[in-house]
Amino acid sequence: MKKTLQRLRKRNYISYISFWIIVFLYFLAILADFIAPYPFNKQFRDYPLCPPTKIHFFDHNKKFHLRPFVYEVKLVNPALNQYEIVKERICPVYFFVKGEKKKILGIFPSTRNLFGTKEGKIFLFGTDMHGRDIFSRILYGARISLSIGIIGVSISFFLGFLIGGISGYFGGKIDNILMRLVEIFMMFPAFYLMLALRAVFPLNLSSFQIYLLIVIILSLIGWAGLARIIRGMVLSIKEEEYVLAAKSLGLSSFRIIFKHIIPNTFSYSITAITLSIPGYILGESTLSLLGLGIQEPYPSWGNMLSVCIGNLRVLSNAPWMLIPGLFIFLTIICFNFLGDGLRDVFDPKNW
Amino acid sequence: MGTLWKVENLTKEFEIRSEFKKIKVTALKSINLEIYKGEILGLAGESGSGKTTLGKVIIRLIDPDKGKIIYRDIDITKLPERVLRKYRKNFQIIFQDPYKSLNPRIPVGLTVMEGITGNKKERYEKAVELLNLVGIKEKRFYDYPHQFSGGERQRIAITRALSTEPEFIVCDEPTSNLDVSIQGQILNLFIELKEKFNLTYLFISHNLKIIRFLADRVGIMYKGEIVEMGKTEEIFENPKHSYTQKLIESSFAF
Amino acid sequence: MKKLLNVRNVVVGNEEIKILREISFEVNEKEIVSIVGESGCGKSMTLKTIIKLLPKNLEILSGEIYFDGIEIVKYDAMEKIRGKEIGMIFQEPSSYLNPLFTIGNQVEEAIKEKIEKKEKKERVIKILKEMGLSSNVYYQYPHQLSGGMQQRAMIAMSLINNPKLLLADEPTTALDLTTAFGIIDLLKNLVTKYNLSIIFVTHDISLAKYISDKILVMYAGIIVEKGPSNLVYTNPLHPYTQKLINCLPEKYKKGERIKTIEGQVPSLKDLPEGCPFSPRCEYKKKICENYIPGEIKIEERNVRCFKYGNFMES
Amino acid sequence: MRRYILNRLFQFIPLLIGMTFISFLIIQISPGDYFTQLKMNPEISPETIENMRKLFGLDRPVIIQYFYWLKNIFTFNLGESFSYHVPVSFLIKVRLKNTIALSIFSILLTWIISIPLGIYGAIKDKSFNERVLSFFAYIGISLPSFFIAMLVIFFISKTAILPLGGTTSIFYENASGFEKFIDYLKHLLVPGIILTLSGIGSLYRLMKNNFLEALNSPYIFTACAKGIPTYKIYFKHALRNAINPMITIFGYELSGILSGAGLVEIITGWPGMGRLVLEGVLSFDLYLVMASLLIGGILLIFGNLLADILLALVDPRVRLR
Fold first, then answer.
1. Domain residues of chain B, as ranges?
2. Residues of chain D positioned with their CB less than 8 A from the CB of A189
3. Among A68, A195, A260, B107, which one is most buried in terms of CB atoms within 10 A?
4. Is position C283 within any domain?
5. What domains, with CATH codes, occur in chain A?
6. What is the ipTM of this complex?
7. Which of B81, B105, B114 sits opposite A263 (nearest CB)?
């Protein structure tokens, strides 16, 4: 792991940075309770569609404040969602400020937040129509969007490895049948298949059920491609002369599979996994975006964007509503960079 | 000299699948062959003559369609892999391309150790000893295959084959990817090892000059059949089959 | 005999490595010259230098190449010479032929003169026949031909403009013995029929002796010995040539040990400072480790070795 | 050649059967059959329901039901939509046309743009311009298509240069044929551009890599050694060889395009199959959803077949063996 990172750093600095950005995003998601200044469902009825709060060091008298502060804002025109700052109300930003009661990681009870204000409100990315803090919702949404990527890919990879491995190692009729099955799954446009599978289940499910459902749907769609890749890999490695040589040394099939075949698929599969995670993140966002996935009030990056569909007024008056999309983009581009970098690094030719 | 291997009526067909149809290619057409203990049997022929397939089928890296393979009076044709594994240590193979025949992710020393039995220390010492024998120093024990030159890799592949203390080795064009100056070193090594370990070789090559230099007996293969077989000097001095004549003529024209 | 090609002190490489070092040789009209050596010694690179098709990271650093009155190193209209005056054939005809076009199309395209399509076709079919192929090959695609036929088609393609020089880069190595033999004889016959000179690259010194008038032996980017084929083969002067010939298994009887060259060909990235062969040479002296020997002329031959001349004592 | 195409057709039959079976299976696993919903509708008489039950063989064992369903499908009886109360086939016919128009439009546009860019990138490999292009390609690949759609809509809403939503303007009714066509095209433009933007990146990269690979091939060296002009080397030898793998991946690309089209349709309000499926899902209109899924699959099969035929036309190694 450490060696891989060092090589990554040397050969492909962008993917090295991408790796750390991804780690940082997961870190944010895990510690969302602590880092987010507000709970994801806390509605500030007086602040609908409030623009991002600016953080200042100088007040309007050009006086420098060592502790950064924000101004309190006031809704002046509810029809057009126009806000005005109240110049007199300077609200300093504090670290480890007291907030609502919650359990960090679901275990440690705490009332402290990483940062916040004692008076006034701090909305780093603005608020949505219900006056909920988008920054906090993005952090909580990251839990869903990012975890589905990992869990979904693990399940499909397990299926893909099993089916692709069996298909490649045994060959013949089994291979033929399994590969036809894979082709059938690949012959449906993924978007249609995703919606069709979703259609089987009722629309109103509990949020946990929906989460599971999304994972299952995405894995059902994703396994086929991975199975095909792994089958091809096993098929070619099986014929490699070093595998034949190991066989003629009289090694057991177990040893041949686990010492000679699987390690040689690792690098390739890690790359394939990395490059397919964006697909799962996109799948979840798409379903949630269309209102078929994670339901309000629970946030996911996808459903936070759903107000933007067909709602030109929101789009043009409150462009900060698009920020969750930027996070999806950032995550995907990092995974893409990382995948490309890993492909480079794992190639024995480049050692 | 006793008979080590006896092959009867060996036949193998391959299926090549194309978009339209399955094409059957006959790689081996009822081959009969005996290999005596302690000899070097040369197998010559052009590409596609089935010589490599024959080498692999004899030690059952590929299963034949028809025929019998008898090793020291044991019919191993139908033995399940589980049982065959006991015997596998007795016969080894060395491949043509030393760049493909070593696992790129395993240090060469460990590759050699895989074939040796005993406790860890014994295995290590034996591997070092064998590597020394072919001229690979102990300090390179944990190096990966890509850090070695072609000639060195072929030496390592030979060491791996020797590690199980075999009595028979199939050498499948072991020098044809090597430079002339390295080829000489490897051929010498084969001769030395044969004397030292009492080995029997099936030496497959398209290069008749090497076959004449090395082999006691020669089989000439053409389109899946052995068209002529006999003592090396006899074949080269007095080839009977027209294909053998043509082959020898074009090989020794220069 | 008229000189066709004259290569003078050519150095090829980049800041890091030198692939060819001070290469000098001549090719006369209607002559076959062989370049012999092991992999990575610069044989193919010499051909690519003459036709000026070096890989992007390499360039001709110094030296001159005169071809038929033109100085090629400074000449910048190579398209006029390539295919017209100098033809080239390769080791693996299957990958050097474009799989998507018919043989006819590919040969025809090489014709430089502006003539009518029908005339072009006739000319192509004529030359295909001269190479021992049927006229049907005109309509066929590369994958429908055997290796030997592909190589004949390649030769037809390179000779369609009646060039003066043919560069042959191991044209028989990938072929079967019996097929290769046919190609070699074809090439030998072409010399008189087409007034052609050939530079024939091979790793097989016996083949070189068989086909060529002159042999150049290369080692690590240097021509260590050059001279008439028979002399070089029967009485080699350079220690490397001697040992190379001594390596051949056909020189030995059964049961003998081959006298090998110990060690390995050095990698071009870390060449020894002096004579590149010195680490493997039994005659090595101090001077060999520090200086690269220059050419010394002995009995119609040029050798680069300190063994000759009076350097060894110093 | 004819044999090759017939063979490919023949190979698609088991695929097709498998696809119908999976579509059917999805209906089967869904809890309760859809008549449970129909029954709640007071407008439909119990007799009608009973008749439909018979028509679809729902009183028979599952496997028999499948064959009933299959038979109905081959007679283009895809069932009746319960939310629209019209045959599903009628709904699909209207929407399919729009989806195909959108897909073809964006495929053409994507290829027209990315092929020359790919060639340029390959020829100028590692230059500054190429690096900029590749950087943008990376961004294009990583931007979700719905996000691109939102950005484009945001831009359009600010400038209002193109119509948004639907296929026609208000004046459509009394416009001439040509005007109707132009109007349709105008409406097609926004979803078409969005789909193109989200597809260009990957296609550019593929084309660039293919062209680079072709340029590094031995036969290009031969062409150079023959002394033929550079433009001929690029546009005859390299281009032909670089295009072939592009045709092969066309099938996979098509899957992505249909999926992308579905989503873009929904976001931009283009009435295509994608929106139909979503409407079906939201109203639990299972037969509509499954029929759309099947049609989507069949479109893909046709796309793949087309790619196969095209490849055989341009590649003698496939055509003549």
1. 99-159
2. 255, 258-259, 262, 296-297, 299-300
3. A195
4. yes
5. 40-132 (no CATH), 138-350 (1.10.3720.10)
6. 0.87
7. B105
Chain A CB contacts of D281 below 8 Å: 195-196, 198-199, 292
In this predicted structure, the answer to whether residue D263 has a pLDDT above a threshold of 80 is yes
**pLDDT (0 to 100) of residue A348:** 64
Q: How far apart are CA C271 and CA A314, in angstroms?
A: 70
Q: Is the pLDDT of residue D57 over 80?
A: no
pTM as predicted: 0.88
Distance from CA of A313 to the nearest CA of D (A): 9
* DSSP symbols for C250-291: GGS-TTPPP-PPPS-PPPGGG--SS-TTGGG-TT--HHHHH-
Q: What is the distance, to the nearest Å, from the Cα of residue D181 to the centroid of all Cα atoms in its chain?
A: 22
Go through chain D and tell me how many residues it has.
321
- Comparing C-alpha atoms, which of C89, C17, C9 is closest to residue C47? C89
- Smallest Cα distance from A244 to chain B, Å: 7
Residue C24, judged by CB atoms within 10 A of its CB (0-12, 13-18, 19+), counts as: middle
Q: Which CATH number describes the domain made up of D89-279?
A: 1.10.3720.10
CATH number at residue C57: 3.40.50.300
pLDDT tens figures, D275-321: 888 888 888 777 788 888 888 888 888 888 888 888 888 888 877 76
CA distance A189 to D274: 11
Contacts of B18 in chain D (CB under 8 A): 321
- Supply the Cα-derived Rg of chain C in whole angstroms: 21
pLDDT of residue B17: 65
Distance (Å) from the alpha carbon of A187 to chain B's nearest alpha carbon = 19
| Segment (H or E) for A74 | strand A64-77
C16 domain-assigned: yes
B195 in contact with C, Cβ within 8 Å: no
Query: From the CB of residue B100, how many other CB atoms can be counted at a distance below 10 Å?
Result: 17
| D87: preceding bond cis by omega (within 30 degrees) | no
Q: A106 — contact with chain B (CB < 8 Å)? A: no
Give the best residue of D1, D217, D222, D240 to mutate against chain C (max C CB count within 10 A).
Answer: D222
Using the beta-carbon criterion (under 8 Å), do D259 and A292 form an inter-chain contact? no
Chain B: give the shortest CA distance to residue C203, in Å.
8
B214–chain C Cβ distance below 8 A for any pair: yes
D: neighbours with 3+ CB pairs under 8 Å? A, B, C
- Per-10-residue mean pLDDT of chain C, 314 residues long, equals 90 90 93 92 93 92 92 90 93 92 94 91 95 94 93 95 94 89 92 93 93 94 94 93 91 88 83 88 86 88 86 53
Distance CA B174, CA B160 (A): 14
